C-alpha cells in the first residue's frame, strides 16, 4: 500500500501534470510544424532549386545482390532533416521573441497607484489632526 500511495502523491503533483500536458501539446505542435515544413515550405524550396526532392538524394554504395539489400547513403534525408531543424528552430525563436516582447510590454505598462477612498482620506485627515494636537506644547 505504501508504494501505491507514494506513486499517487508523485503522479498528482503539479510538476508531473504540467510536464504531461507539455509533452502532449509538444507532440501535437510537432505534427503541425512537420506538416508546415513538409507541405508548405519544402515545395517552394524544391521549385527554387530546380525541382530536386532532397529526400530522394542518395548514393548507392553497394548494389543489391541476391537476398542482400543495397547499401545506400541517403544524404538527401539528412539534408532534409537539417532544413527541418533550421525552420523549426527559427519558428521557435520567433515564438519566444514574441512572448518576450509581450512580457516586456506587460512589465513596462505603468501601474497607477490606487486612488484612496473617501474613508481613507478622512482617516488620513484625522491622523494628521491627532499628530498636530500631540505636537502642541
From TrEMBL:
It holds the Pfam family MscL. It is found in: Cell inner membrane; Cell membrane. The chain crosses the membrane at residues 78-96. Keywords: Cell inner membrane, Cell membrane, Ion channel, Ion transport, Membrane, Transmembrane, Transmembrane helix, Transport. SUPFAM superfamilies: Gated mechanosensitive channel (SSF81330). It is a multi-pass membrane protein. GO terms for cellular component: plasma membrane. The keyword Membrane applies. The keyword Ion transport applies. One of its GO terms (molecular function) is mechanosensitive monoatomic ion channel activity. It comes from the Bacteria. HAMAP family: MscL (MF_00115). Homopentamer. Channel that opens in response to stretch forces in the membrane lipid bilayer. May participate in the regulation of osmotic pressure changes within the cell. Belongs to the MscL family. This is Large-conductance mechanosensitive channel. It comes from Pseudomonas protegens. The gene is mscL.
Amino acid at each position: 500500500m505504501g508504494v501505491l500511495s507514494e506513486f499517487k502523491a508523485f503522479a498528482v503533483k503539479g510538476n508531473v501534470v504540467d510536464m504531461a500536458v507539455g509533452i502532449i501539446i509538444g507532440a501535437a505542435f510537432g505534427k503541425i510544424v512537420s506538416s508546415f515544413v513538409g507541405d508548405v515550405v519544402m515545395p517552394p524550396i524544391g521549385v527554387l532549386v530546380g525541382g530536386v526532392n532532397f529526400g530522394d538524394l542518395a548514393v548507392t554504395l553497394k548494389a543489391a545482390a541476391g537476398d542482400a539489400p543495397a547499401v545506400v547513403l541517403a544524404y538527401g534525408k539528412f539534408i532534409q532533416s537539417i532544413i527541418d531543424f533550421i525552420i523549426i528552430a527559427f519558428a521557435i525563436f520567433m515564438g519566444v521573441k514574441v512572448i518576450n516582447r509581450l512580457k516586456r510590454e506587460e512589465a513596462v505598462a505603468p501601474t497607477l497607484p490606487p486612488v484612496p477612498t473617501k474613508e481613507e482620506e478622512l482617516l488620513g485627515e484625522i491622523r494628521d489632526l491627532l499628530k498636530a494636537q500631540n505636537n502642541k506644547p
